[in-house]
Amino acid sequence: MEKHTDLVDLSGYPKRIELSDGTRAWLRPMRKNDLDRLLTFFEELPARNRQFFKHDVTRREVIADWCRDLDYDRVLPILAVVGKGKQERVVADATLHTDRHGWATHVARVRWVVARDMIERGLGRIILRDLLERAAARGIQKIQADIRADNQKAVKLLRRLGFRKEATFRKHAMSSRGRLHDVLIYANNMDDLWQKMEDLNIDSDWFMMP
Questions:
Q1: Helix (H) or strand (E) holding 150
Q2: Which of the ends of the chain has fewer CB neighbours closer than 10 A, N or C?
Q3: What distance in Å separates the CA atoms of residue 196 and residue 202, rounded to the nearest whole number?
Q4: Which residues lie below 8 Å from residue 53, measured CB to CB, with a gap of 6+?
Q5: CA 123-128-134 angle, 5° bins
């Protein structure tokens, strides 16, 4: 069941966007009927990059759970799509994770991933900016990203965006092969992140994973 609260204003969607090469796409929240489109999207990602996801995104039941248990107040998943109807294709997926109660309601966690053939067209920057606008509307002051320590491309990108490492969870993630990895917690405040977004031309961000 899709749960909506007064905190979630989706009136701006679907939002038409134009990429740097002239490609037209749409941003919109994930829907229940996106299961097959999302599964195809994740299956087409390179295996070396899928390994950084917390869950096995090639398993249909994993994506089915995401589509079935939509709660936009808790996790807001935004998709970038091209085409229409049966030809609609997911080309990017981004999520904003927030807490309803407790001492971390001012903090949001983000992740985003862009299809391999859509890199360097400005899509990563556009969808990240959309997430930040949603975060700002909810009064979020701090953005957090959790990544595996061996995802060095993501580490470099976060540093370019002004994120700082705040914690290390030792041997906190286990790969599909049973190998243990550290998980790094990076964070930045909203004001600094907005400034970095203005200063940098960021689009090499398709590998960002929690």
A1: none
A2: N
A3: 9
A4: 209, 210
A5: 130
What's the CATH number for 15-199?
3.40.630.30
In this prediction, residues 40-44 reach a mean pLDDT of 95
Helix pair angle (190-199, 123-137), 10° resolution: 160
Torsion of CA 67, 149, 114, 46, to 10 degrees: -90
Q: Which residues contact 56 (CB under 8 A, 6 or more apart)?
A: 50, 62, 176
| Share of residues in the chain with pLDDT > 70 (%) | 91
Note the pLDDT tens digit of each residue in 136-166: 999 999 999 999 898 888 888 888 888 999 9
pTM given for the model: 0.87
| Domain chopping of the chain, boundaries | 15-199
